[in-house]
Amino acid sequence: MTELETLQAEMEAAAAALDFEEARRLRDRISLLRGGADTQDAAAADTAGLVRQRPGAMGLGSSQQRMTPPAGWTPPVKPDPMTRGRSRKR
Predict the structure, then answer these.
(1) Phi, psi of 19 (to 5 degrees)
(2) What does pLDDT average to over the chain?
(3) What are the helix and strand counts (H, E) for the chain?
């Protein structure tokens, strides 16, 4: 058995034994290994602070990553809706 298959079997056994915390840790290790992490790095990684996105929790587009603006960027000034389309001449 490969490392992934072993971890998968351990995760399923932990879930069957209702040890969901261990199953979560094993799931996160499997995810790190599939993402290209080294076996030792995946075993040593602290995944307790990771927060997974829940699709549909906030409506449409909630599964998209949040964009962070570059350093020093300020949003443009919004136009005043009360003066739009009016001229100063009367």
Answers:
(1) -95, 80
(2) 77
(3) 3, 0
